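Hi all, a correction to my earlier message: I attached the wrong file for DUF6472 domain-containing protein. Here's the right sequence:
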Amino acid sequence: MNTKQTSCDTCVYYLYDEEYDCYVCDRSLDEDEYVRLMTDSRYACPYYRLQDEYAVVRKQM
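and the right structure:
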């Protein structure tokens, strides 16, 4: 069972890289963070930020 609370697909730092022709994380994770993120389902990425297009609009209301 995957209990990870974040998903790279919804992260603002998950960007398409034309050079590699795939999606990559734009943040520089060190080796320990990357291994923990890939192996431990309870570990959440410390840089995760929800890609929310309407955040600015909500602040203006």
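Sorry for the mix-up. The two ends are 39 Å apart (CA to CA).
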